[in-house]
Design a protein that fits this description.
The complex is a heterodimer of chains A (247) and B (834). Chain A has 247 residues and is α/β, with parallel strands linked by helices. Chain A has nine helices and ten strands. Helices cover 34% and strands 26% of the residues of chain A. Classes of the chains: A alpha/beta (247), B alpha+beta (834).
């Protein structure tokens, strides 16, 4: 298995189409989406419910497959990879932060952070580990189980886990959805910091204009199509754009 | 109420089906064993009715010496027949001889034996007096002409006109002149039968002219058997009695029921009980998990107005429905199982009479037990469900968090400690009741304590696994600690199953080791020739004499056994020339009647005392106890009767064993060859070295173990289904977690491996616990049962290692389906699941 590592656009889709169901019941969740995820930037994907934003994220991350079109990530055409190759790709080249159930309850915070490496049988780089853990402010919580951590702390552990493999892209699916606004703001700041200070590439799906304003660029989706883009977003401009597209 | 039930059951058929499987298997086992026991009983009843049912009256000796091993009946004078024939209402009187004779097949091999008896006797022609029917040839006329049963004829490729040998036990050359069936069957089960003329049987089988085993009487048409019996009885001399054919059937049935069938039924029922016990654990556990997973729904039902009673009722009704359906299926499967078990018994050499299955009691009892067990197992989970508060509908999905309560652990500890104390006391004081009670208390205590033991043990296993299998192993082990109660409940089923196997294995291993020891200590003979035990596979007394004349042999002695009644108690006695015996075993009593010290202690006898001994011919002699010896079984049992005393009273003298001491300088191999050559004339018996003899004696123990393993495999299968069930439920609960693992890079193979290891950890917990429990209880029970310390405890490592390995491997097996299902989960579905 070859997993290529270098490219400028870290990930992207060309003519991505995803159809659920058949015949009259068919739903086009994605309808010919072409999008690039530039390296070293924080991209937000927004859109109303059912716009296909989560589907796009899942397809870009190799969690779901397209009906037609192509997705590439870190130089690999995901459509050509087997389940095992996709799994290893996710393990080594992709970081995930989900809305909920981000951590395994039986593992400590530290074990959760290094889980992708442990699954790979790979060694932990202690310097990078220190740096990531310090960045999300978890140094004194490493021995705790998830049940002993607050929601915000749990999501920070998830970010640390997403960063530990120095992935090509970190995908975050409504990462602040279950947090209060203070904890949410803090979490978004960490994601931003990962881009600006650690040079990471981050893609985040959100429906919250304030969350989207932390990104460098916002891509708007409606009915499975890209309907707008915004560079250097503020909450107000995001809201205006959402109103324009009828969200 | 019905709506509640329907809501509860909807969409959970799979889960309920797996509960049903455990119930069904338990019921199947119970049905199978009940049906097998009843079938055997009915078959034996048929057999005896066929044999004696049409004979109106049987006149026989009033002396019956009946031990567990054999029954000996005295003889009656043939001259009585003449007097009886003169009576009104008597149509015919025929004397009959019944004894033993070993047929030789056309290829020179012995026929039958190894369990079923090899019978020989006299041919009775009258169809009302004998169930045997000639199907080929004619009845015997000369003393060396015989009729044999069709089964034996086919087995030995013998035809009418063939010449062969019958050992009675003296070898007699005979000509087969006829072939007969028992009613329409080829024989009495697998027994062989050789019929001489009455004169031939007199000469060759009993060697007592003028004496018969019994006189068979048929009355004229319309004569009442009971009235005829009374009339005959009034004319009989002392020591002779008359019974009707019906009484004989009842007697025979009672004997077989008390001895063989009673043992068999107890044995089978014990296993059915174990299977149901294991099933109960599995069912309880599954119910508990299902109820826990359903907490929110239950709360919702309560919130919209369902009463506690309705919730309780719905869970119990659910259990009852499952129990009924599963019991029905189980009964069907059990009928098949009964047929299978019957075949299994045949395969292990316990050949049983043929015939269809008798199902009455099984059909009545098994379903009741099945439904009862399901309801009992479901009771506590149902009560727990009924206590769910409506408010819990608002909370996040609760799972069976189950750590053991302090009270439970305390109760478990008290029970377990009490059990250990009782078992140790029982072992020390040889009280089986005490040890048994201790075993029960300890087992229950262990099961109650289980959830407390899971975290530390699984934790230690987890650390080892983590080192061995990385994060996959560590995750697997930690998953087992998430709900100690669930893990312990699942492992308990296996613990009980493996525990019982271990107890049996330990008992068998100890018996074997003790026989080994005993033979080593007691027997100094170089070679042994053994008859095939009871039922006529005996050796001719001439054999010992013939072997004694072999130049390579220093000394040879024959040992017989037979029933005697001494001071009102009937036992098997060993018969030998005591003076000759001393050269071969550690019994040196000169030339006298002697008893073992165990018997002397037990009955309060001392050397010099006189006792009244009744022999199989009905005669009683007063013998003086000449000596007391250390027990020397399996060669010499508790009583040793000098041969010259015995010969005066025995009906058909056979040796069970010939002990041989080789001359100085003769190797065992050379000696064995020489003895085999000399023995060839005696329907060639096996000449064994001491080691071969031990192997042979312990073969019975091995056969028993074979049965134990076969039957307990089922209990383990039930336990395995419990594990598979628990794993499936756990996976169902952890769908999102599994999706997360797959998302961050766990391959399908790693996921399967994780589920498998979790299963193995549970299986190892159950197996290790079971082996430990079984070893201890085996030790205690052996100590308690062996009053005189005749059986020493020996843990048969060679037998226990397979038990442990199979138990642990069973974990891998149990995980196959759940692991596959978990691995098939689509990552996205799992992550997105709510």
């Amino acid at each position: 298995m070859t997993i290529t590592t270098a490219t400028t656009a870290r990930a992207g889709a060309v003519g991505a189409t995803k159809v659920y169901g058949r015949g009259d019941a068919a739903v086009r969740a994605l309808d010919g989406v072409t999008v690039d995820v530039p390296a070293g930037r924080f991209t937000a994907i927004m859109g109303p419910s059912g716009s296909g934003k989560s589907t796009l994220l899942h397809c870009l991350a190799g969690l779901d497959t397209l009906t037609s079109g192509t997705v590439h990530l870190g130089g690999n055409d995901l459509g050509t990879l087997s389940d095992r190759e996709l799994t290893v790709l996710r393990r080594r080249r992709v970081g995930f932060v989900f809305q909920a159930v981000n951590l395994l309850p039986t593992l400590t915070a530290e074990e959760n952070v290094v889980l992708p490496l442990a699954l790979d049988g790979a060694a932990v780089d202690p310097v990078w580990f220190e740096e990531v853990v310090a960045a999300v402010g978890l140094a004194d919580r490493l021995d705790h189980r998830p049940s002993e951590l607050s929601g915000g702390q749990q999501q920070r552990v998830a970010i640390a886990r997403a960063l530990i493999t120095r992935p090509a892209v970190v995908f975050a699916d409504e990462p602040t959805g279950n947090l209060d606004s203070a904890a949410g703001g803090q979490l978004l700041a960490f994601l931003q910091q990962a881009v600006t200070e650690l040079g990471q590439t981050v893609v985040m799906v959100t429906h919250d204009p304030v969350a989207a304003s932390f990104a460098d660029r916002v891509v708007f989706l409606a009915d499975g199509r890209i309907v707008g883009e915004l560079d250097g977003p503020t909450p107000e401009r995001v809201l205006d754009e959402l109103k324009r597209i009828g969200g | 109420m019905r709506t509640v039930l329907r809501a509860a059951m909807r969409g959970r058929l799979g889960r309920l089906a797996s509960i049903g499987l455990a119930v069904g298997l338990g019921v199947a086992f119970l049905t199978g064993t009940l049906a097998l026991g009843d079938t055997l009983r009915a078959n034996f009843d048929d057999l005896f009715t066929q044999a004696y049912g049409r004979t109106d009256v049987v006149v026989r000796s009033a002396t019956t010496l009946d031990t567990d091993v054999e029954a000996a009946q005295g003889l009656v004078p043939v001259s009585l027949a003449e007097q009886l024939r003169a009576l009104d209402g008597v149509r015919i009187v025929e004397p009959q001889i019944e004894g033993f004779g070993q047929l030789t097949g056309a290829d020179g091999e012995k026929l039958g034996g190894q369990g079923p008896p090899t019978l020989a006797g006299s041919w009775v022609d009258d169809p009302e007096l004998s169930p045997w029917r000639l199907v080929e040839g004619r009845a015997p006329e000369g003393s060396e002409e015989v009729v044999i049963n069709r089964g034996a004829a086919e087995d030995g490729s013998l035809d009418v006109g063939d010449v062969t040998t019958v050992a009675t036990p003296e070898p007699v050359t005979v000509t087969v002149v006829g072939i007969a069936t028992f009613g329409t069957a080829d024989g009495i089960g697998p027994t062989t039968w050789t019929a001489f003329t009455f004169a031939g049987a007199e000469r060759h089988v009993t060697g007592r002219p003028g004496q018969a085993s019994s006189l068979l009487v048929a009355g004229d048409d319309g004569v009442d058997a009971a009235a005829l019996r009374a009339e005959i009885a009034a004319r009989l001399p002392a020591g002779v009695e008359a019974v009707t054919g019906g009484e004989l059937v009842a007697d025979a049935n009672q004997t077989i029921n008390e001895d063989f069938l009673g043992f068999l039924r107890g044995f089978l029922t014990a296993f059915a009980a174990v299977a149901l016990l294991v099933a109960t654990f599995s069912i309880h556990n599954t119910f508990a998990i299902v109820v826990a997973q359903r907490t929110r729904e239950t709360a919702l039902l309560r919130a919209v107005g369902a009463s506690r009673r309705q919730v309780l009722g719905s869970v119990l009704a659910e259990g009852a429905l499952v129990g009924v359906a599963a019991s029905a299926a189980g009964v069907l499967a059990g009928i098949g199982l009964a047929g299978l078990l019957k075949g299994l018994f045949d395969a292990f050499g316990f050949a049983l009479p043929a015939g269809g299955l008798t199902l009455g009691r099984a059909l009545l009892l098994a379903p009741v037990v099945g439904v009862g067990v399901t309801l009992v197992a479901g009771l506590t989970p149902a009560l727990r469900a009924s206590r769910v508060a409506p408010l819990e509908a608002m909370r996040a999905a609760a799972t069976d968090g189950g750590r053991a309560s302090r009270a439970r652990l305390a109760a478990g500890a008290v029970l377990a400690a009490g059990g250990v104390a009782l078992a140790v006391t029982g072992a020390g004081s040889h009280s089986l009741a005490l040890a048994g009670l201790g075993a029960l208390a300890l087992t229950v205590g262990t099961v109650v304590l289980g959830p407390g033991a899971v975290p530390p043990v699984a934790g230690a296993l987890g650390r080892a696994l983590g080192r061995l299998r990385g994060v996959t192993g560590a995750l697997a082990a930690r998953n087992t600690v998430r709900s100690p109660r669930r893990t312990a409940g699942t492992a308990s089923a296996l613990l009980v199953g493996v525990g019982v196997v271990t107890i049996f294995t330990v008992v068998a291993g100890s018996l074997r080791a003790s026989i080994d020891d005993r033979v080593g200590e007691v027997v100094s003979a170089d070679l042994l020739i053994s008859g095939s035990g009871f039922g006529g596979g005996g050796l001719s007394p001439g054999l010992a004499a013939a072997v004694d004349r072999v130049p390579q042999v220093d000394a040879a002695v024959g040992v017989a056994t037979g029933p005697v009644s001494i001071e009102g108690r009937t036992s098997q006695a060993s018969v030998a020339d005591p003076a000759d015996l001393a050269a071969h075993v550690t019994v040196d009593v000169g030339d006298r009647f002697a008893v073992s010290d165990t018997v002397a202690d037990d009955r309060g006898w001392a050397v010099g005392q006189t006792v009244a001994v009744t022999f199989p011919d009905g005669a009683t002699e007063t013998l003086t106890i000449g000596a007391v010896y250390e027990p020397a079984d399996p060669i010499v049992n508790g009583y040793l009767v000098p041969r010259q005393v015995w010969d005066r009273h025995s009906v058909q003298t056979v040796d069970n064993q010939v002990l041989i001491r080789l001359a100085d300088g003769v190797s065992v191999e050379d000696g064995q060859r020489a003895v085999e050559a000399a023995a060839a004339a005696f329907a060639p018996p096996d000449v064994q070295t001491r080691a071969e003899f031990v192997e042979d004696v312990t073969a019975n123990v091995n056969a028993m173990l074979g049965l134990v393993y076969a039957l307990l495999a089922l209990a383990i299968v039930i336990a395995l289904m419990g594990i598979a069930n628990t794993l499936s439920l756990s996976i169902h609960e952890r769908v999102r977690e599994l999706g997360l693992l797959r998302a961050v890079g766990q391959t399908r193979r790693q996921l399967r491996s994780m589920v498998r290891w979790e299963s193995v950890v549970i299986a190892v917990l159950g197996t290790a616990g079971g082996v430990a429990l079984g070893l201890f209880l085996g030790w205690a029970l052996i100590g308690a049962a062996s009053a005189s310390g005749t059986v020493r405890f020996a843990a048969p490592v060679g037998l226990l290692v397979p038990v442990a390995v199979v138990g642990a491997l069973a974990g891998v097996l149990a995980a196959v389906r759940p692991a596959r299902r978990a691995a098939r989960l689509q990552v996205l579905d799992a992550v997105a699941a709510t």
